[in-house]
Amino acid sequence: MRLSPDTLDRLPDAVARPGYNRDKTAIGIIHFGIGAFHRAHQAWYTDACLNAGEGGWAICGVSMRSATVAEQLNPQSGLYTLTQRSGESAETRVIGAVREVLVAGQDNDAIVARLASPDCHIASFTVTEKGYCRQADGSLDFERAGEGFYPLLAEALAQRAEAGLPGLTLLSCDNLSGNGRILGELLRAWLERNDAQLAEWFARECSTPDTMVDRIVPASAATDLDDLADALGMRDEGAVFTEPFSQWVIEDRFAGPRPSWENHGAQIVTDVTPYETAKLRMLNGAHSLLAYSGLDAGHTYVHEAIADAELRELTDSLMREEAAPTITAGADQDLSAYADALVARFANPALNHQLIQIAMDGSQKIPQRWLETLAAHQRDGQQCPAILTALAAWLRHVRGDRREVEDPMAQELAAAWESAGTEGIVEAMFGPGGLLASHWQPTPSDRAFVTALL
Q1: pLDDT interval class at 352 (50, 70, 90)
Q2: Is the Cα torsion angle 391, 397, 401, 405 positive or negative in sign?
Q3: Triad 263, 267, 268: Cα angle to 5°
């Protein structure tokens, strides 16, 4: 037996389920990249709004890479369970906010129709850093963009403009500093090349607020799904598992209506910057350190890595001594308390958050997570030993002789190692004209520190 609208009444009484009429709820949000994170985060907040009586905010998910999520959720009419785990306790509820999942490349006409519908007010995104198709200098890679969401959005916006409909709020929920600003600039570049008049309409009618999202959502293992099936008495192929903590900070700059997410824990603010900077440099920065250094130390999960005394010391140093001093905290932010909470979250053994999952796509992540902190300290004549240690672990990882490297730049990174060798790899990666050149330029001392660890 499988989870579906017809089997909801057979679930155990302790499992909460949607308290609203899903069939009468219009689809008001189209979400690109409907992976586990979206289902445990934005869809969870939206489901809470629907349960509170708000209408018109059902979600149409769009899979950009494969049909896997569509195959998991569509036979279940979009229903799935979310289980919050902490220590030995677990709490499961059914999320009903997702109505359907479409697949880019297969269902393009239907995706455009959903976006162009008068019912739609928001398009949101968790497509990962590489899904924005940026070149090394941050500009749009038009060739790659042609295979992403840009043509679909452009066609839908053109239809809305022609029909006299209002613009959309385009809500990036990816781990990019200034994610809304970046999305707006990239989409504007696409439109200006292909339809200058539509670019003007987009600038006038649409908005791209910045956001910060935070919730640890490990990939669901087969054993997790099997154990859940035993507990529920039925299979849920789209189940997600997460921690109790969740944070969503959104810039108050919407083009039209929106759900009252703030009634369920989200923060609507005038400036997201302090929150996103703390998350990127402290949480994500520490996660990446634990991933590469933890894998080299023989660990599999985050909770194992943070229990390693040496890695715990490096993590504390990165968060408190290196990242935190570079952040101008908001009025209600306590960065020391934030670091304490992060360590506690990392240590949660119920999550089984795989280090190899965090290690994916490092070339797209470490500029925001590490290099900006390095640059800030360099301006003050200071070095960051913890981040440099993590940087050496990443360089060992992308050399490709320890484990498979999942990264859009894997071939370029391996080629750099081949041509530069141990003595030249730091400069080849981070020096002027390097693959990941940034505002941080490694000094002779930096190069010596990292090279000694390779």
Answers
A1: confident
A2: negative
A3: 95
The structural domains of the chain, ordered by start, are: 8-269 (3.40.50.720), 273-451 (1.10.1040.10)
What pLDDT is attached to residue 219? 86
Tally the residues of the chain.
Answer: 454
pTM above 0.85, yes or no: no
pLDDT of residue 161: 98
Q: What is the mean pLDDT of the chain?
A: 96
Sequence letter at residue 177:
S
* Residue 96 CB neighbours (<10 A): 26
Give the 3-state secondary structure of 26-50. Answer: CEEEEEECCCHHHHHCHHHHHHHHH
pLDDT digits (tens, 9 = 90+) for 8-17: 999 999 999 9
CA–CA gap between residue 435 and residue 416 (Å, rounded)? 8
User: Residues 6 or more apart from 362 whose CB is under 8 A from it?
Assistant: 288, 292, 394, 397, 398, 407
Which contiguous run of DSSP H or E holds residue 155?
A: helix 150-163
Instruction: Identify the residue whose tokens are 């990446």.
Output: 288
Predicted local confidence at residue 185, as pLDDT = 98
